Amino acid sequence: MEKINWQSRPELFTGTVTPMQRMTPGLLDFYSYSDVVVIRAESPSAVTMQFKSNTTRLQIAMQFGGAAREIFTTDVFVNNRLTTLNGDGVHDLELGSGEKDIAIHFPHLVVIKNLEISIDANASLLPRKPAAKLVLCGDSILQGMTCSTPSKALGVLTAGELGMELHNTAVGGAIMQPIPVEEALKLNGAITIVGFGINDAAHETPIDLFRERVRQILTLLSQAAGKTFILTPIPALVPAEANRELYSNIIREEHRNFPAVNLIEGAGLLTADNDYFVDGLHPNDSGMKIYAGNLTNAIRQAL
After folding, report:
1. Cα(213)–Cα(34) distance, rounded to whole angstroms?
2. Whether the Cβ atoms of residue 61 and residue 106 lie closer than 8 Å to each other
3. What is the pLDDT confidence band of residue 249, given thresholds at 50, 70 and 90?
4. pTM of the shown model
5. How far apart are CA 227 and CA 264, in angstroms?
6. Rounded Cα distance, 251 and 233, in Å
7. What is the C-alpha to C-alpha distance for residues 168 and 46, in angstroms, rounded to an integer?
8. How far apart are CA 66 and CA 78, in angstroms?
9. What percent of the chain is helix, strand and coil (3-state, nearest 5)?
10. 119: closest CA among 26, 57, 33?
């Protein structure tokens, strides 16, 4: 078999600034304030390697670093047929003959320290046709905490339903601040979705400060070339729920001055039901699927 020199093939990746790196330099700098946050920012959430090849075998070898959550799954689609790999080390897949579409969704909450992708020597290797870009900017729920495999994250599901490529800049624990939005808009998404607020409710960000940051973010979104959306937080089953509506109301009030930005109500995306959550805050696989379906419908209504 022959190793792909993937570092020199950015066209094989979606959801990245450079191969395997989803964050801009500005975002990496912004999210460098603690070791925990660095791990979340460096995890390749929604990073995929997509290509066409006539290889009969595919070998994926990985070594992991820190984990935002101990979910070590990789999803591999071959002609839309899914195989889920678990853990690091070396994984061998027999693919059969003929040309095939291959998409590798890397572990979304784990830092990958070393990566080798190998195919048959002399096999063809062509990038997939580019699609319009959906950009996410937000907190842990938009990052994909805590579904069981990367392709079940709400952003991946939403982008798939819309026929778009996903670029996910969300980071667990993030609060409403304009710098991440400013950086995300540099990615020139056809659609950009911003979703913060539940962490502000949990940590009781001062109301005046939260309002000013919402206003700054809405100003940025209103000036973007593509379609932009801001979300109010989804209902939760944790103490932050007591403050959620207070912070949601501020988003609604400020949004009235920015009609170019689309507002989506979190309460219409997912019901606060233990069947849909891992921990009362983060959706499970079922919750992600429902959230993604309702989010997709809301986006389509606005297009």
Report:
1. 22
2. no
3. very high
4. 0.97
5. 13
6. 10
7. 6
8. 28
9. 35, 30, 40
10. 57
Q: Which tens digits make up the pLDDT trace of 135-190?
A: 999 999 999 999 999 999 999 999 999 999 999 999 999 999 999 999 999 999 99
Please give the DSSP secondary-structure letter assigned to residue 84.
E
| Residues 1-35 pLDDT 10s | 999 999 999 999 999 999 999 999 999 999 999 99
d(CA 51, CA 101): 6
Contact indicator for 154, 141 with CB cutoff of 8 Å: yes
Please answer whether residues 270 and 301 qualify as being in contact, where contact means their C-beta atoms are separated by less than 8 angstroms: no
Tokens of 142: 């938009």
Q: In this predicted structure, what is the pLDDT of residue 219? A: 98
User: Between β-strands 57-67 and 110-119, what pairing exists: parallel, antiparallel or unpaired?
Assistant: antiparallel
Q: In 3-state terms, what secondary structure has residue 8?
A: helix
215 CB-contact burial (10 Å; exposed 0-12 / middle 13-18 / buried 19+): middle
List, in sequence order, the alpha helices (H) in 44-186. 140-143, 154-162, 178-185
Q: Which pLDDT score, from 0 to 100, does residue 68 have?
A: 97
* Strand partners of residue 60: 91, 117
Amino acid at 176: M
pLDDT value at residue 250? 98
Task: pLDDT band for 242, please (50, 70, 90 cuts).
Answer: very high
